[in-house]
Write a structure and sequence with these properties.
By secondary structure, this protein is α+β, with helices and mostly antiparallel strands. It is 30% helix and 30% strand. It is built from nine helices and 13 strands. The strands form three sheets. Strands 7, 8, 9, 10, 11, 12 and 13 form a seven-stranded mixed β-sheet that branches. The protein has a four-stranded mixed β-sheet with strand order 2-1-4-3. It has a two-stranded antiparallel ribbon with strand order 5-6. A hairpin with a 4-residue loop joins strand 11 and strand 12. The longest helix has 17 residues.
Length: 283
């Protein structure tokens, strides 16, 4: 178990097992054979063959495509093919900020293997001896990664809201961080990964933020998604990340990015070159 192992785990997908998801002649995702079979029930909307799944519905703009695909995703959820429902929409595009070709229910994003985006916030505290970071324990009734450790604030990036507005919203919901504090969060770049999951390809970009909090601030969850918070030193964060599997998989990437930026992982580390290549490389 190592930092490099944690990164490689988030890059474990074998795309030979998936078919491109095509819209208007361009690839936007990856679809498994089993999910492709379910989509083949709608031949007027999806052309399914051994080489690709192509959206062929009679719709030629963002709104029309979104409207056409939405009831299909709803039916697949009702059938149990799509196992959860969020009620948020993700854009189907190639890069953050690019106009999408449609939007889909967040719970369906991994089944189509489309690009996803999220914000992860490091809750940092300066003390006399060293810097500390607040970490969250996910609620044990969450459908994914129950009880795992997480950043103080993290959430998907839906359509219709900026990164900073999302940071402020999620900070209030997940840790009761006042807007005045959350709005001071500093963007610190991003990490990307493609990971195989039971739902499909998780192709994600995580935008990392640092939020420096007063020493007397204590986070409090308000949406039921976190069971508890704990304040750990950077040394403890490094140990938990490198030597345990207590963190949610993609949270390890945000941790490693923070540890690099804070000097806890530097060029003296034997895996430094490979760590930085995989962590910051385009996928």
């Amino acid at each position: 178990m190592s930092y490099l192992d944690k990164i490689k785990h988030c890059h474990n997908v074998d795309l030979a097992n998936y078919r491109p998801f095509m819209v208007e002649g361009s690839q936007y995702g990856w679809v498994s054979s089993s999910f492709a079979f379910h989509l083949s029930v709608w031949p007027d909307v999806f052309q399914v063959d051994d080489t690709a799944v192509t959206f062929t519905g009679n719709a030629d703009n963002y709104a029309a495509r979104s409207e056409l695909i939405a009831p299909i995703i709803k039916v697949l959820h009702q059938q149990g093919v799509i196992d959860t429902w969020v009620g948020e929409f993700y854009p189907v595009n190639h890069h953050y900020g690019q106009q999408g070709v449609m939007e889909i229910e967040r719970a369906a994003a991994l089944y189509f293997g489309v690009q996803c985006y999220g914000v992860h916030v490091n809750g940092l505290v300066r003390k006399y001896d060293t810097n500390y970071v607040w970490i969250a324990e996910r609620a044990k009734d969450k459908p994914f990664y129950p009880g795992k450790l997480d950043q103080i604030v993290a959430g998907g990036q839906p359509v219709g809201i900026s990164l900073m507005d999302n940071v402020i919203k999620e900070s209030q919901e997940e840790a009761n961080i006042p807007k005045a504090l959350a709005s001071q969060s500093q963007a610190r770049g991003y990490v990307q990964y493609k990971m195989e999951t039971k739902r499909g390809v998780e192709s994600s970009t995580l935008f990392n933020f640092d939020c420096w909090l007063p020493e007397d601030f204590v986070p409090e969850n308000t949406d039921g998604e976190v069971d508890s918070f704990q304040l750990v030193s950077m040394e403890e964060l490094a140990d938990l990340t490198e030597n345990t599997d207590e963190f949610k998989d993609n949270c390890n990437l945000t941790n490693i990015d923070l540890l690099i930026r804070s000097g806890f992982i530097d060029a003296k580390h034997p895996d430094y070159e490979e760590i930085t290549r995989l962590l910051y490389g385009e996928v």
